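Entry for the shared binder. Reason: the reviewer on the internal report wants the predicted structure included alongside the sequence.
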Amino acid sequence: MSKTCKKIKAFTLSEMLVVLLLTLIVVGLAFSVLGLVQGQMNDIQISYEERAQDNLLQQALWIDFNSYSNIYFSSQEGALVLANEIEKKEYRFRKEYVVNENDTIFTDFKINKAFFWGKEVNSGKVDALEFINEGEQIKTLFVYKRNAATDFMN
């Protein structure tokens, strides 16, 4: 009886180590790229949320400035009171947010200047406000209303 040696085709240990090393490098690069992409997506999401809150404040102020005939600002209280013959609305400006009745708008915009008939005022009746946000880049927001003839008669 003769023994026949049959060779099994296989990879050597060194070939397997080279393949494992290359696989490790490729997977490591893939996870690094994935981490960078996730970081960028997170930054984009945060930026979008901040812009959405700033736009919400701008839209709310534009609508209210053009809906109410009397607008009063108090710099000591950080309050903006809007009133007409039917109703009254109030904005409270805090360090990192603005409270408007049932809404809270998280924004870094602060009131920089208040104006009435083109002149800067500290408190009292106003017809325009300038907001400033001194974050990474300085952003401004200017909200005003057109004065009616009745404003000039009183």
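Summary line for the report: The longest helix spans residues 13-67.
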